[in-house]
Each structure stands twice: as structure tokens, then as C-alpha cells.
Design brief:
Layout (H helix, E strand, L loop, with lengths): L2 H27 L5 H28 L14 H26 L9 H8 L5 H34 L2 H14 L5 H22 L3 H32 L11
Helix pairs in contact: 2-5, 3-8, 5-6, 5-8, 6-7, 7-8
Length: 247
Amino acid sequence: MYWDFAVILVFLGLAVPWLGRQRIRQLLRAPQISTMDRLVLYASTSVYQWLAAGIILWRVRVHDVRLSIVGVTVPYLGQVLATSAVLCILILLYQVMSLRRMMGPPLESKGVLAQLVAKIFPHGGVERVAFLGLVASVAVCEEFIYRGFVQGVFEDWLGSIAGGILMSSVLFSLAHLYQGRRGVASTLLVGLLFSTIRVWTGSLIPCMAGHFVADAAVGFLGPVYMRSATVEPAASKEPETGIGNVN
């Protein structure tokens, strides 16, 4: 393994989880987050994502690594498009059902995601446009980083497709450490699914599409269910309970 690849992997496995967790904790501790705060968060995160992906792509090209090894290819267009469509539909249905379960009152018992929905997800038209750009950036860059670079490097280094799938999924789940243990576990399962699809299709496109739909669904529908959950107890006087989790 090249030394710069090893440095990147260590950064992804140690620095990214710690920095992400610290940043989210700081935001959640803030008594109130303004529109400008959210816009700055969206912009800075997008810049980081593209910078990280750009540096990794640069090092990949320096070492003349074939782009097919990191998933930047479309070997079978029909298979890629069909897989993308099915994956997006299934993820959208799952996210909707999960949000409906999770956002049932009382919201205080719903953990980190409910707090993220309340404070960080978009609340107005301008924020929604900026958030859409963020979701697109995260979907493209994270899939290239984890399902492309990390999976390709470990698969080549270990000489094992299964090893590449496992290690990329582990690092991907650690990047979501801020979601807590349940969030890390669910993200690990998603990573295993996406990594398997990447191997099957030979392309990152289905994973990017599914990632985009998953994050967009939570970002745009989460606040809607949040509002309905806060109104329902006042009308019924007997709040329902139910705990769910979504990545």
C-alpha cells in the first residue's frame, strides 16, 4: 500500500469520526441555530467533501490506479440504471416508514436524529436549496471516498472482495459516530449493502443515487414529520410512544 493511501485511511478512520462528533455536539448544545448558521454549515461541509474527494482522486491518478478499481466506470449501463431505480424506490419507502415511526411523540425519546432534524435540517426555501446542494455533494463524494477509494484499496491490499466490502463499511460507519451506537450499527448495514451493490454493478452510480435519496428524504421529510409530531399531542392529550431509527 502506498504511504499516502495509508495516511488517508488513518485520517478517515480516526480524525473524521472524532471531528464529526465534536462538531455535531457543539451544534446540538447551541440553544438556537439561525438560518445563516445552517447555510454556513451546509457550505463548509460541501467544501470539505469536494476537497477530500479531490485530494483522493489526485493521489489515485498520481499512482496510475485504474478508475475502474475505484468504481468510476459504468460497465453495463442497463444494469446500473435498473439497480439505481430499484434501490432509490426501496430506500425512499424505508425512509418514509422509519420517519413516521421515529417522529411519533414524545420527541424527547428519539435520540440524535430528532435533534438534528430540529436544529440542522432545512426550515425554509433558501435553506432547502442549499441543503439539496449539500446532499448531492455528500452522495457523490462519500460514495467515491468509501465505496470507491477505501473499498478498492482494501480489496487490492487484502486480495479479497469481502475484505474490501467489510473495511469500507466499517470506516463509513465510524464516520457517522455522531449518530450514536444505533446510528453506527445501521450505517454499517447500509455500507455493507451499498458496497455489495458496487461490486455487483462495478459502478458507484447506484450507490450515489441511493445515498442522495436517503439523505434528501430525511432532510426534506424529517421537518414535516417533526411538525406533525409536535402538534398531535396538543390535540390528543395522550401522546403515543414508539422508537425508530433511520440513517
